[in-house]
Amino acid sequence: MCDTCGCGQPDNGITIHIPGEEPVHQHSHIHSHGDIVHTHDHTHDHLHDDTHDHHPDDHSHSHSREIKVEQDILQKNNLLAERNRGFFEAKNIFAINLVSSPGSGKTTLLERTIRELTDISYYIIEGDQQTMNDALRIKATGAPVVQINTGTGCHLDAHMVSDAVKILQPSGHSLLFIENVGNLVCPALFDLGEANRMVIMSVTEGDDKPLKYPNMFSSSQICMINKTDLLPYVDFDMEKAKSYALQVNHHLSFFEVSTRTGEGMKEWYAWLKKKMTL
Ligand SMILES: Nc1nc2c(ncn2[C@@H]2O[C@H](COP(=O)(O)OP(=O)(O)OP(=O)(O)O)[C@@H](O)[C@H]2O)c(=O)[nH]1
Ligand SMILES: [Zn+2]
Ligand SMILES: [Zn+2]
Ligand SMILES: [Zn+2]
Ligand SMILES: [Zn+2]
Ligand SMILES: [Zn+2]
After folding, report:
1. What would the pLDDT profile of 36-64 be if each residue is shown by its tens digit?
2. Pick from 55, 143, 145, 224: CA 20 to 30 A from residue 173's CA?
3. Which residue ranges have their beta carbon within 6 Å of ligand 1?
4. What is the DSSP letter of 4?
5. Which atom of ligand 1 approaches the CA of 258 most closely?
6. pTM as predicted
């Protein structure tokens, strides 16, 4: 699963911050296979079910053992994701998980949406390996935000989201945007409890991404194609991109936007408004 991309490393130091405040949550893990060694350092006390991701961090084990560990990780994640989903449904919180490669424009989309579609109450969870940059950009819009830094981790998981939600305290009948770590691979495997997953591709990335990273497109319900203002300058065939995406998931619906110029945003806002009145 993530063995080759870094999040299988021990001590991957997850932190959760409100911008401008001291870290409110810190995990430092010593991991081993199975349940032999497992410590948590927390800067606060809260109940833990001990259902974290524990990625295999030593390769002396057999292949079948590795697959078993990965299945356990995903099963535990799925259980926690269902708890998150139940909480969101009970409070009428519409949660969207934004996934994409780095730099497709997720944060720009959120900034523009929060500023232009003002009759919705927003809560934002930002996920990046390092920095508070995105949380600070969101804070400037006035929306409540927490930043999860995943350290070496390459995706958010349901436990991190559950911890972040406890800090964020979203009110009922609100819209929760979860901006995942920029990565078209691992976030596909981790259900966060969202109602909808939206994969964002930008026209600078090439129109073949759905075929190269099919899991991300098959696990999403919505596909946004961003940076349409750059179409005259790049070899991106919009119809091809959409047909590739539909090849891996024929249920996908599309938005074509430029979060820079605002082109196409009206349809996105209409969709969000409709979701918020359901
Ligand atoms: N031309 C153009 N540039 C855009 C558009 N949307 C975003 N950008 C630029 O793309 C770059 C990345 O945008 P971000 O919003 O930070 O992207 P992100 O997906 O949040 O990035 P990560 O969180 O690092 O994965 C920035 O320089 C943006 O100004 C767009 O519609 N058109
Ligand atoms: Zn990974
Ligand atoms: Zn742990
Ligand atoms: Zn391994
Ligand atoms: Zn971002
Ligand atoms: Zn915790």
Report:
1. 444 455 555 454 555 555 555 555 556 77
2. 224
3. 100, 102-108, 128, 134, 182, 226-227, 229-230, 258-260
4. T
5. 31
6. 0.86
